[in-house]
Amino acid sequence: MKRVRTVEGSCWSCKGRRVKCDLAKPSCGHCQTLGAECVYGSVRVRWSTRPNAFQARIANAPGSSASSSSSSSCELAVYQKRALEYFMNRLWPLFTSERVACPFPVDAATRDRTMLQAVCVISDAHRCRLDRRNSESGVQLRRIHVLASINQAISRVGMARGPQQIQLLYAVLLLYFLDGYIDCKTENAATLSHQMGIRAIINSSGGYQNVLASSNDALCLLISEFVAADLSSALFRNTEPFFPPETWPLLSTYRVWWASDKREALKLGMLFQKIAAMIFYGKGIQSAGETASPKQVEEFEADFSPIYTSVSSSGQAGPPEGHDAGAPCTEESLLRGEFLRAYQHCASIYLYRVICRYPAQHSIVQQHVYGAISKIVAMDDESKLLDCVLLPLCVAGAHLRNASLQRTLFHKLDVIHRNLKFESVGCIKEWITGLWSLEALPQGWTELFQDLNPQAVVI
Q1: How far, in Å, CA of 269 to CA of 260, rounded?
Q2: How many C-beta atoms lie closer than 10 Å to residue 206's C-beta?
Q3: Do you find a cis peptide bond into 26, omega within 30 degrees of 0?
Q4: Tell me: the pLDDT tens digits for 17-46?
Q5: With the C-alpha atoms ordered 252, 258, 264, 269, is the resulting torsion angle positive or negative?
Q6: HSE-up of 381 (CA within 13 Å, CB side)?
Q7: First CA to last CA across the chain, in angstroms?
Q8: Is 256 helix (H, G, I), strand (E, B) or coil?
């Protein structure tokens, strides 16, 4: 094999691999792809967890605190350290739409075997999808070990409240996203089983209110993603969500996957609340054999109508009181506006298709289909918000018959798949390709989504 001449000033990771470094900082392209630590500098600092002779004598001395409680970092195997590094640098940032993810409690993971195993197995599974370095059989074996550790933890401490239960919730949530995002195509995927386990842990902890109040930002973010997946599944299957509508305003006061800013979090949180309320309303009139109330439909229309700021809505021609007239409108704020409107169009499609029972090709339905797609297509391929519009993409894409727009939308799916490396996106691609190949769309709402892998998590 021809050796590559390393670029002067390359990071140590690229030097070790003998690949050309693009010198990007704080992390070069190779390190970002591999989830490796990117370190520049003339001297490479190495650390070892193996104690020297003096440290060993101190650690083993009678009465030494080190002898009674050994450092958790010293107990980590090499593959565990690599898995933690990969999780923090490559995988964990994918769980949020923000450019910078909230801190993950690495210390808690290193102290709890079950939580650590869950972090390692989801990291190994994702890295296997990325570069095929890890063995599929090895990933599945470690997955079995995590399940065994969870069973042991439940039998040891039961479902009593406490720190161990929080770490257990972390582990089961990570397994849920492992099977729902990464391994949903494998025969061992058990997303629905993990879903029941998470609900049981939350209920035994006094409900989601108590869990959120006692959780750090990382756990709140994972819970928000779990609740959003529950809503998406209910929308696809036309079933009642497990979490009631009032969950969303409370959830939005904590760290959520769609925004770190409280005002932005509440905007989409309130929209999710209205969507959940609409699903419950629809199931109610269906079971009663009734039709939708025109007044209720008008209220939902007002809730889901895409809103743009205007002079008339503010009631004044100048900037509002307290507004910084010199503050420019950022690209991020514009993108978040389009992000919100994509979800508003998605909600409107469900309103007219399920509540009002309009056919898929109805002009009112199609105007929201094209509205949602226009927002998604306009998103920059580099924006993390694009990776978080799979729900409106699925709902609008399922009603799309224009071949040119289908190709454009599929390109966006390819971009998201490349960004995330989640097999759930692959499941969406397979499902929507089969749907578009049909001569005519199924008339029923649930029939549109019946071939979408039920193990796949979509938000």
Answers
A1: 12
A2: 12
A3: yes
A4: 888 888 888 788 888 887 777 777 654 434
A5: negative
A6: 11
A7: 44
A8: strand
